[in-house]
Design brief:
The protein has about 70 residues and is an alpha+beta fold. It is built from 1 helix and 4 strands. A hairpin with a 7-residue loop joins strand 3 and strand 4. The termini are far apart.
């Protein structure tokens, strides 16, 4: 796993910071998404960076609605 980057995160002032990290797979041309910088926290794949940001928004809003 190389070039892991932070796609989106909630503010650090919150009790528990939520984040979505991504790594672009050059071979498959997709973004692999993770809930931390560690490979075991795999979320799934999306085709574009915009879709990755949408996944982050949905995860953050779902978490806030609990």
């Amino acid at each position: 796993m190389t070039n892991m980057k932070l796609i989106a995160s909630t503010p650090q002032t919150e009790r528990r910071r939520l984040a979505v990290y991504g790594c672009f797979d050059q071979t498959a041309k997709v973004w692999e998404l993770f809930s931390s910088p560690y490979p075991e926290d795999y979320i799934g794949i999306v085709d574009t960076l915009d879709e990755a940001r949408q996944v982050a928004r949905v995860r953050f809003s779902d978490r806030n609605n609990c």
